[in-house]
Hints:
The chain is mainly α and 139 residues long.
Amino acid sequence: MSVTEQRPLRIGEVAELTGTTPRTIRYYEEIGLLPGASDRAQGKHRFYTEADVERINEIVRLRDLLGLSLDQLSALLEAESARAELKREYHATEDPAEHRQILGQSLIHISNQLELEQLEHELTEKRRLVERRLTELSG
């Protein structure tokens, strides 16, 4: 069991663990990328968990890897969370009709994620083209 699993973390500790800033973490909460801003009373400190640290690390990883905007990241993470919930629901029932309905919903979320990945692919290709033209002009 890690230290972060043993006790709740303060925002400064989470920022240090994730390589972000407290302001960034608060912003992620404000825009809904990180749940929990509503979990605390006004004026009270919010404590974070290992799951929060993992979520922030995933947000940063996706932002850096895919070059997505925060809105796009939010949509991607929302679809991933919805798929995880659908998976739980799928395994909680034996009803074939419910299985079909759940699988249909999963396809919608997967399609949304693929659209974002296609956007990332298109942007990567555009970047390569611009870099190639820049190299040609410099050479």
